[in-house]
Amino acid sequence: MKILSKLRKSERGQSLVEIALVLPILLILILGSMDVGWLLYAKISVAEAAREGARAVSVLDATEFVNAQSVALGKATVVTGIKVVTVSPSTYTKGSQVTVTVSTKISPLVGFLPSTILPDPVTLQSQVSMRME
């Protein structure tokens, strides 16, 4: 009987139980935040690459489609793994609009969240239009 009364008064395992209950939720929040932050950084980088490519094409005298696409692709190498850079139209005249589209697939950094919440890989795309100068 003395052992049972001692166990009732003892709180030695309480903190272990609390940690076991809170730790999985805390890990999901921290690792999920890291994934979202990584993808936000990648999205900003893709938008910057499209903007830089459009600016380069609109300012430089890139009269040929191949030259314009290579300039845009060169500017878009800010983000590693960029798969598709499209530049339209194929002919340029002063004052017309040029559109640069950058598209890539990025995998989450941690990959901790299920694919129903965050698919693997995530497709990121950005499109920028500028007037030819």
TrEMBL record:
State the organism named in the record: Trichococcus palustris
Question: TadE-like domain: which residues?
Answer: 13-55
InterPro entries, A to Z: TadE-like_dom
Going by the UniProt record, its keywords in alphabetical order are:
Membrane, Transmembrane, Transmembrane helix
The protein's name:
TadE-like domain-containing protein
The reply on keyword Transmembrane helix is yes
Q: Where are the transmembrane segments?
A: 21-41
